[in-house]
């Protein structure tokens, strides 16, 4: 697949759903779930039809064997490497993998497993050569830094009573990549209750723009920065949904007012109007929402996000009772390498040092330590600590 088409498809959303009234959806879905629960006979028949008990023992025995499971992992990696090596785009920049023709001595159990897999009559069981047109190497957005569902660490839990608290909404946040403004990349995914507000969604969204360290001022001049160990709250935002701009309400003239003023100055034909309520006073249940429709969010000056609803459903008995908003996915942060050694991620941003080729210049700890402090006292050098990240 052409790389330009591939990026364009990854930045498209849809097809969009009809406008969903969450309160109506909740009442109708709860009534439907009660009627379905009464059909015990149908549930038993469906469970028997979808049961995999006949193959569960064989699957468990294979995956519990380190030798057989390693063979399956290795066979899958060989197939994927062959597909990646056969694509025209990758063949120009990478050498073809020769692992597919590698011979090795198989044990009897492995030979028996391979024979059983080869005897499966399903035509789509194995990856065909045509699958190379629909495969790609993993990207940064394909990895999840979370090893478990992350609950909210702030007091944002909505009351458990009420029909709104029975509806869960899955949001995905996207941002523009630095090297091409028309390409979007997934940054995080969250689950909120319909009784929670747009402000709860904004507060739980991670963003590197919120990691800028606080300035240290003396006589109105920046003399340094405070080291930050994580994300702090944003100064405000505006969310545009269905032509209404919901501001933060932190000041008399918030982000929504500034957006409307900007549209008037630029004589834009957009019909965006300011909403009567702010993000912290707007429950999700009071907003008409659509699935697979991107909603625009602006904060920290010019940092843009696009929020997309992936799913609207009722709360299941196995869902967490508290801790909402939940974070299901968080993309790993892209770390800049040291500009001196180009091997280790940078931890310092050096501003105003004439010994360096650029200002600011990103350096790792060992490189900055080996340079030592500036010898010229007249130089005003600022050392800015870069944000620290951790896996959850």
From TrEMBL:
One of its GO terms (biological process) is snRNA transcription by RNA polymerase III. GO terms for molecular function: bent DNA binding; core promoter sequence-specific DNA binding; RNA polymerase II cis-regulatory region sequence-specific DNA binding; RNA polymerase III type 3 promoter sequence-specific DNA binding. This is snRNA-activating protein of 50kDa MW C terminal-domain-containing protein. InterPro entries: snRNA-activating_su3. Keywords: DNA-binding, Nucleus, Transcription, Transcription regulation. It is found in: Nucleus. GO terms for cellular component: nucleus; snRNA-activating protein complex. Belongs to the SNAPC3/SRD2 family. Its main location: nucleus. The keyword Acetylation does not apply.
């Amino acid at each position: 697949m052409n790389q330009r088409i591939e990026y364009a498809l990854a930045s498209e959303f849809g097809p969009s759903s009809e406008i969903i009234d969450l309160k109506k959806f909740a009442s109708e879905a709860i009534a439907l779930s009660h009627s379905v629960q009464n059909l015990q006979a149908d549930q038993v028949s469906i469970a028997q039809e979808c049961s995999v008990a006949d193959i569960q023992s064989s699957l468990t025995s294979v995956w519990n064997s380190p030798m057989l499971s390693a063979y399956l992992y290795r066979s899958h990696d060989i197939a994927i490497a062959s597909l990646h090596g056969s694509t025209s785009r990758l063949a120009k920049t990478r050498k073809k993998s020769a692992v597919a023709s590698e011979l090795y001595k198989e044990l009897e159990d492995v030979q028996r497993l391979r024979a059983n897999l080869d005897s499966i009559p399903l035509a789509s069981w194995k990856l065909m050569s045509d699958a190379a047109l629909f495969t790609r190497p993993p990207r940064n957005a394909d990895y999840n830094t979370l090893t478990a569902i992350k609950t909210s660490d702030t007091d944002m839990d909505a009351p458990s009573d009420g029909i709104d608290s029975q509806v869960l909404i899955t949001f995905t946040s996207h941002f523009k990549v630095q090297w091409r403004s028309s390409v979007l990349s997934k940054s995080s995914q969250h689950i909120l209750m319909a009784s929670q507000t747009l402000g709860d969604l904004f507060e739980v969204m991670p963003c590197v723009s919120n990691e800028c360290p606080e300035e240290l001022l003396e006589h109105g001049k920046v003399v340094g920065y405070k080291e930050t160990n994580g994300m702090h709250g944003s100064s405000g935002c505006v969310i545009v949904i269905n032509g209404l701009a919901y501001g933060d309400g932190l000041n008399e003239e918030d982000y929504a007012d500034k957006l409307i003023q900007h549209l008037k100055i630029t004589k834009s034909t957009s019909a965006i109007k300011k909403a009567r309520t702010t993000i912290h006073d707007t429950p999700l249940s009071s907003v008409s929402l659509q699935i697979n429709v991107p909603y625009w969010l602006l904060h920290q000056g010019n940092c843009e996000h696009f929020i997309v609803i992936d799913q609207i459903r009722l709360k299941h008995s196995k869902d967490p009772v508290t801790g909402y908003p939940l974070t299901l996915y968080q993309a790993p942060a892209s770390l800049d390498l040291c500009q001196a050694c180009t091997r280790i991620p940078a931890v310092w941003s050096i501003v105003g040092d004439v010994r360096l080729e650029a200002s600011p210049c990103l350096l790792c700890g060992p490189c900055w330590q080996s340079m030592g402090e500036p010898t010229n006292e007249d130089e005003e050098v600022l050392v800015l600590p870069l944000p620290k990240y951790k896996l959850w």
